[in-house]
Amino acid sequence: MTRVRPIHNRVALLLAAMTVAAALALPFLAFAPNRLLSGKAVALSTVAGAGWSGAALLPVALLLAVPFLRPGRVVNALYVGGGVLAAAGLVWLAGQHAVLLAATASPAARTSFGAGFWVMEAAALLAVLDGVRRLGLGPAGRVAVGALVAALIGGQFAAGHLDQLSIMKEYANQRDVFAGAVLRHAALVAAALVPTLLIGVPLGIAAQRSAAVGRLVFPVLNVVQTIPSIALFGLLLAPLSALAAAFPGLGIGGVGPVPAVIALTLYSLLPIARNTAAGLAGVPEPVREAARGIGMTPRQIFWRVEAPLALPVFLAGLRITLVQAVGLAAVAALIGAGGLGAIMFQGLFANALDLVLLGAVPVILLAVTADAALKLASALALSRLGRTAA
């Protein structure tokens, strides 16, 4: 009688099932004679069967075994390590096969990531996240693991190993404008963040101090959040155009970065104001009374007691604001604000999927980086509060 091995990690089992299904049923790569024609599917078995390329799949095999291994720190460490190496190995495998295909094809030929690659890559990265959580790594450890993944994949990019992939050919075509688009995207987010903090924080403080202000402010900000971004850009078009006509020296218009920054600011106010109010409301009243008891002024109570205790909640709101603004800034390209959204929409209009990805991937990386940085800052703030309380 065959003994059934127990399942110790159901998340890993689900990810393993996704990996196996993608490997068997979906194309790993797509190869097309040029940018305009649809690509021919290239299976993972074909890619892995070329020379020693299949060795890159060994970490994937480790991930498939994890669900059946007894949990522990060693197994979880192998889980994380296998996920990191699998994520980097899949990218290497795709780049290696693109080099082989390019050796016998015309310069116009394109090798793109297939659906199977994206599913397997996502499963590997999710395995890393699950393994990091099971290991109980703190924010610094999580950032270190993320940096390792970025270094292994970024090293392949820097070494030119991925140059024959279609997305890198698109990058080569857009090299002159790509860095400017990234900086423009970051500038839009930064320009929206300044007025958001200047307006949102005082609104949150006022809403926490006065229930009447809260009843007025939050419904209005909630309504703003429900307006679709494209519609909000349209609503701003007429008044800003009229303002530009009345005061041509202001340098603003109905399209361009100014309406984009205004719209991003309006969208960002709610999480900042609400988390500021929630953070201050979470300060225990006995702590305030103790501060008053030792003779602190209201200003001193705010800066030395309330603000530090409310900081973790405020940083959580700032994290939501930043991630949301990074995503919404891409849509602002439709009104001429530029940024990475301009590359994405150029690809959509030209039916060039890899050009869309060239704009989308940096947006995702910017959002993930902002999220990780503010999570780390929030954890450090909580740790400092813990030491202070102790």
Automatic annotation (TrEMBL):
Domain ABC transmembrane type-1, residue spans: 182-374
Pfam families: BPD_transp_1
Highest taxon of the lineage: Bacteria
GO cellular component, one term: plasma membrane
Keyword field contains DNA-binding: no
Coiled-coil portions: none
GO biological process: glycine betaine transport; transmembrane transport
Subcellular location: Cell membrane
Designated name of the protein: ABC transporter permease
